[in-house]
Design brief:
alpha/beta; seven-stranded mixed sheet; 6 helices; globular; binds flavin-adenine dinucleotide; binds FE2/S2 (inorganic) cluster
């Protein structure tokens, strides 16, 4: 029997740094060999001993040999991640799935909420490749904006939107798209709430601009056998979580339905 690749095996590592990004978001740094080769948009399964194992996008990849996840506190597992201190142990499997393609050219990246955790390393990688990147980043309110300095440093233009107008333009991340997309882009990347990504896809697709969207579903095995993450027959843990326009166009559930733990389809 051939040995499974190192990335499929759980590794124990310790937390090397914790950064408080906002009241509800922390970035947790760790050292892991397999994560150093990850693509932006790929994710890891993070095991918090005695609590749970949850999927997290890599929000930083090989920064002086370290990687990071940026975690929004929403329930028990993420609350436990927020309690971690330097030196505490976590388990890591992955990186899993397909990440974003790095294109040279005029790129637009649209991030919503904690979706910025996958977009920040993407924008940095695109800038390193010599691309000209415009970023639109939307949040509900100014105090929820995170990783903004990283986006600002690597983009040519950063447009911030907040629903309450406390920072940047008042409204949704999709509001500036109508005029922006007419400027002409070679590709549009997006990660965030699915309703937002669906809108981004529709607007870009009708102008013939290719889209890559990072979808989120329940992830368990992450090796394509349990079926938890399937969207219209596409296994997000293997064929995604980043999907391109051709696949997005034929998905009936995208932007409309997701599966609960029971497998039941519910509206988004
Ligand atoms: C590919 C991917 C990347 C993600 N990246 C990030 C990120 O960068 N930052 C971030 O803050 N969040 C990210 N998430 C969402 C994150 O995984 C969930 O917020 C987290 O699992 C919630 O766990 P909880 O116990 O704190 O919350 P609850 O909502 O209370 O979760 C209840 C239960 O659901 C499970 N659960 C919830 N969502 C998922 C899921 N998608 N897959 C498997 N189990 C789940 C939890 O393990 C727990 O057992 C990502 C999800 C996916 C699929
Ligand atoms: S998480 Fe098991 S098939 Fe994708």
């Amino acid at each position: 029997m051939s040995a499974s690749p190192i990335r499929h095996r759980p590794r124990i590592t310790s937390v090397t740094r914790v950064e408080e990004e906002s009241t509800d978001v922390k970035t947790i740094w760790f050292r892991d060999e397999a994560c150093l080769d990850a693509q932006p948009g790929q994710f890891v399964m993070v095991w918090i001993p005695g609590v749970d194992e949850v999927p997290m996008s890599l929000s930083a990849i090989d920064v002086d040999g370290l990687s990071a996840i940026t975690v929004k506190r929403v329930g028990e597992a993420t609350e436990s991640l927020h309690k971690l201190r330097v030196g505490d142990l976590i388990g890591v499997r992955g990186p899993y799935g397909r990440g974003f393609t790095i294109r040279r050219g005029r790129c637009l990246a649209v991030a919503g909420g904690i979706g910025v955790s996958a977009i920040a390393p993407l924008v940095e990688r695109l800038a390193d490749a010599g691309s000209d990147v415009t970023v639109v980043y939307g949040a509900r309110t100014g105090s929820e904006l995170v990783l903004v300095e990283r986006l600002r440093r690597s983009s040519k233009r950063l447009i911030i939107t907040t629903e309450d107008g406390t920072v940047g333009q008042k409204g949704l991340a999709t509001d500036p798209l109508d005029t922006l997309l007419d400027e002409g882009f070679d590709i549009v990347y997006t990660c965030g709430p699915e309703a937002m990504m669906y809108r981004v896809f529709l607007e870009a697709d009708r102008r013939g601009i290719p889209v890559e969207a990072c979808l989120e579903r329940i992830m368990r095995c992450c090796v394509g056998i349990c079926g938890s993450c399937v969207v219209d027959g596409v296994r997000l843990c293997v064929e995604g979580p980043v999907l391109g326009s051709e696949t997005l166009r034929r998905l009936e559930e995208f932007g409309k339905f997701r599966r609960e733990f029971s497998g039941r389809l519910v509206g988004i």
